[in-house]
Design brief:
The chain is globular and about 75 Å long. Helices cover 58% and strands 3% of the residues. It has a 5-stranded mixed sheet, covered by helices on one side. The protein folds into 2 domains: 389 residues, no CATH class; 116 residues, no CATH class. It is mainly alpha-helical.
């Protein structure tokens, strides 16, 4: 458990901060912690963390453990990844695998489903897997407590867990004590929602999304709409579903209650999420369907595809079915890098690496009995290291660069707390999100704001107007534009160094950025 947690965190898939969703969550938590911040930032002044204890836990670690939000979130990330590893290990053991084989299967799943950002849904997923593992071992109260904590952190991620927990109780494969912790968790969450601070636009749970907001959602968050899926996406989903179906058939004699109810249930819920999402989002345009995003349940199909293929590969080697084992291991080891493999521009060396890992896995399983399982554990560890050191599955280039940190440190120490910055030419993915979180300064508009068009209709209209007015992040602002910038109450404009204004002295500059004061604040 410790081994795979460390490998997954430090080696592959690794971890990120202020790379994606934390660009939004961290400033929102900063505003909840200090409501005087971001008063001029329309995105951060609408925190949508009321439906989760994610921010309360991070704030508690800040107040009582001395951990700022960055280190508090990273600490939780390690803890909940360890929970996921423990849960996967327990589930694999219930499949009838010996301990080395269970380690191999857990490692394969961790490679495929780990989310690098320290966000609420990934924390809850770790507790969900731990809860399932404990339930399959008959530790129902402990499983319910893990599920209750996960529900507090991210209720929608835990909804499948509680649906299947109720089903297992009805089937009498689980004791009713499993459900006992849910009611207190609901009460605590309602209490936290009541005392949530910092919001300016309430969420309407029962309205229908208007056509303008729907158009924004379809343009910027299209994967949530089944009707927007590409052929490649559909084929990918069907392939994983086929793997799960065949895997269940091959392991049918090993799937016994209560594990059978959990795994079959996750598969069924994943399948049903597609028509359900199509009805409530594509057709009925229910306002909460997009924030809920039922299609996230499809993650369980990926999880099952990885788990079952790795397990079937091990059993196939033990039975001497080498060709079948090679197919199963190829699937398990290709899933973590499928985005790089299923493309016209696939690197042949990546194919060679996957095939080499397949051969190593088969050899490790074959030698497991002679090496007391060490060879199999080593085969499970190798993909973490090989994907990282080969450079064939590179991590995304960090947005939170040293140059951006320099800019943020300057802004925090020398500019007014109410100052508004515009990153005029950063494009769709730039540094404004990490800057906002580190400098604690408002940003006029940035591409990450599209995430809130799921929630707030008023903000959606405001964000779309601002994003259009700044040329969608491709504005090479010059001195002639400063009056317009001032009219929009922008205090500083940030340009890339190559777009610096030669006739104007910047307030701050480094090798990547040049910052110009637009107007004075009195």
């Amino acid at each position: 458990m410790v081994l795979f947690t460390g490998l997954g965190y430090f080696v592959f898939p690794g971890h990120t901060y202020l790379q994606a969703d934390t660009q939004i969550y961290v400033p929102m938590m900063e505003r909840i912690y200090n409501p005087a911040l971001f008063v001029n930032d329309p995105m951060i002044s609408r925190p949508y963390l009321a439906l989760t204890a994610y921010d309360e836990i991070a704030t508690g670690l800040r107040n009582y453990a001395g951990l700022d939000f960055e280190h508090g979130l990273k600490f939780q990330q390690v803890v909940f990844r360890a929970c996921a590893a423990a849960g996967l290990l327990l589930i694999a053991l219930r499949l009838g695998l010996a301990l080395p084989g269970a380690f191999f299967v857990a490692g394969a799943v961790i490679l495929s489903i780990t989310e690098p950002e320290p966000v609420a849904r990934s924390f809850a997923l770790g507790l969900l897997l731990l809860g399932v593992g404990l339930a399959t071992e008959g530790r129902f109260l402990a499983a319910g407590m893990a599920g209750a904590l996960g529900f507090l952190i991210h209720p929608t991620t835990m909804a499948p867990f509680w649906c299947l927990a109720a089903f297992a109780v009805l089937r009498r494969t689980a004791r009713p004590i499993l459900l006992a912790p849910l009611l207190p968790a609901i009460g605590v969450l309602l209490l936290l929602m009541h005392f949530q601070t910092g919001g300016t636009e309430p969420i309407d749970f029962f309205r229908r999304v208007d056509f303008f907001q729907e158009a924004l959602q379809r343009r910027f968050i299209s994967m949530s709409f089944v009707s927007e899926w590409s052929v490649k996406t559909i084929l990918d989903r069907l392939f994983q579903l086929s793997v799960v179906g065949v895997g269940f058939w091959r392991l049918r004699d090993r799937l016994r209650p209560p594990l059978r109810e959990w795994l079959w249930g996750f598969a069924v819920l994943g399948i049903l999420s597609v028509p359900f999402s199509w009805i409530v989002l594509d057709q009925l345009r229910w306002a909460m369907a997009e924030p809920w995003d039922p299609l996230r349940t499809l993650l369980f199909i990926t999880l099952l595809a990885s788990m079952l293929s790795a397990a079937c590969g091990i059993f196939a080697v033990q039975k001497g079915l080498w060709w079948e084992a090679s197919v199963w291991f190829a699937i398990a080891l290709a899933l973590p890098v499928k985005g790089l493999l299923v493309t016209w521009f696939v690197d042949p060396w990546l194919i060679a690496l996957v095939l080499g890992l397949v051969a190593t896995s088969m050899t490790g399983v074959w030698l497991a009995a002679r090496t007391r399982g060490i060879a199999m554990v080593a085969a499970g560890v190798l993909p973490f290291i090989a994907f990282r050191i080969s450079g064939l599955a590179p991590a995304p280039k960090p947005v939170d660069s040293p140059e951006l940190r320099q800019l943020a440190a300057w802004a925090q120490t020398t500019t007014e707390e109410t100052a508004v910055f515009l990153f005029a030419d950063e494009g769709s993915y730039g540094g404004s999100g990490p800057f906002r979180a580190r400098a604690l300064r408002s940003v006029y508009v940035d591409y990450e704001g599209r995430a809130l068009v799921n929630y707030f209709p008023e903000f959606s209209a405001e964000w779309a107007r601002r994003w259009r007015d700044v040329h969608e992040g491709h504005w090479r602002a010059g001195p002639e534009d400063f009056q317009e910038l001032a009219d929009r109450h922008i205090d500083f404009v940030v340009l890339r160094k190559e777009h610096a204004i030669p006739t104007k002295q910047p307030e701050f500059s480094n090798s990547h950025y040049a910052v110009y004061r637009v107007r004075r604040i009195f």
